[in-house]
Amino acid sequence: MKKICAIIVAAAILLGLFGAVNAGAASSYVSQDDFDGTIRGQALDIIRGDGVDLYTPGQTGDYLVSTKNTIYGPYQTVTMRGWIGVEDTEIKQFGYVIGDGEPVFSDDFFTETEAAVLGAGGDYALRYMVTMDVSGLGEEETLLMPVVKLEDGTVLAVTFNQIKYTTKPEPVEEKPVIMQLNNGNTSTPFNFSGHISVGYRFTIPEGYKLDTFTVVQSPTWNGPNTGIGLIASIYRWVNDDYEDTIDQDPLGVFEEEDHKDNANLIVSYDYIPAGEYLIELTEFTGNIGGWMAAQKTAEYEDMFHAYVDEEEVDDCVLVKMSIVVDNDPPAPTEVPTEKPTQAPTEVPTEDPATEAPTDAPATEEPATDAPVATEKADDDTGDKDNKDETKSGANTGLIIGIIAALVVVAAVAAIIIISKKKKK
After folding, report:
1. What is the pTM of this model?
2. Structural domain of residue 230, as residue ranges?
3. Which residues of the chain fall short of a pLDDT of 70?
4. What end-to-end distance do the CA atoms of the chain give, in Å?
5. DSSP secondary structure string, 306-369?
6. According to the model, what pLDDT value does residue 411 have?
7. Contact predicate 65/213, CB 8 Å
8. How far is residue 413's CA from residue 410's CA, in Å, rounded to a whole number?
9. Looking at the DSSP assignment, which residues form a beta bridge with residue 179?
10. By the 8 A CB rule, do 75 and 122 touch?
């Protein structure tokens, strides 16, 4: 019996050590969602493989969406260039983490910081250019995370994107057609949160289906890291009437919960085939909006309309949508299309550049027509795609450690009881 108890104790100790090691490996840096400070602003402008841009300049967000945040090698090095500003905190070093490894820092990762970066990210904002050696990585998808060391020693994730690297070939998929519905960034922000609803009516051409609908570089007025969002419901447009349209049940509902300042607000649904639709944005939490466009794109003049509080408006924030070929469309009787259009022949390229950040509103006070941003309740348990995947590892390690400790206590107690019985 003593031998059995000894084996249990040994196994429990090993499990405890394993859990402790796991927990330690998973906490090499703090994700942006778990950071206690305030991030004034940030951007990821360039991703390169062996020194070559992996996408058209200024289209980092579109590249990550199209590859599902995955870099497909093989490369010897991967470079990420961007900037970040943290409230009242100096940045001491930039570095990176590969997989569950330890951070690697270098003073060589600092690069010149433009005045526009300081204007958007505050006096402590700095630009970085981090180059990682990925020559030893293979087909297993491995996290690549730029990090920053702050003056108090905190190691913070520099981006909220969970970017993976693999040497597997990129899946062959048809590239979506980008429809830039309006253009000409005026650098004037419009806050959705001062209104009940904001709507966008558009037509998906015959033979296509909706891929994504995007509010370009949606600002939050440097709001909190969490709790900023909205609900985006999509309806089939009926009777040429807004109220009749939203009286129907929505075909899909998309929820944004933790939007980051100046990140693309990308809305998607399971399946939306050819036809005319309305996306209505409602239930705004915190300050969230868009940058006003100068004009509609001429080729989409008749198939795109904007609304504020159910009233059609001429001016609208920068928005675009992407469509893909629908290889299995429903029968025409199931999906009537009142206004079929031709598929666009060109892909507009007038996205606002992300190399230098746009001038954001002052951060000391919110815009005059903007309510003060509020945090969500602590019991918000919705899944978030940009959560740090290493957190699950830390939780698992702690749980194993606790269970192991309980097993040790039980085994020791059993030994004591058996010993006492024998003495008697």
Report:
1. 0.54
2. 174-387
3. 1-27, 58, 332-424
4. 17
5. EEETTEEES--B-EEEEEEE-SSPPPTTTS--SS--PPPSS----PPPSSSPPPPPPSSS--TT
6. 57
7. no
8. 5
9. 321
10. no
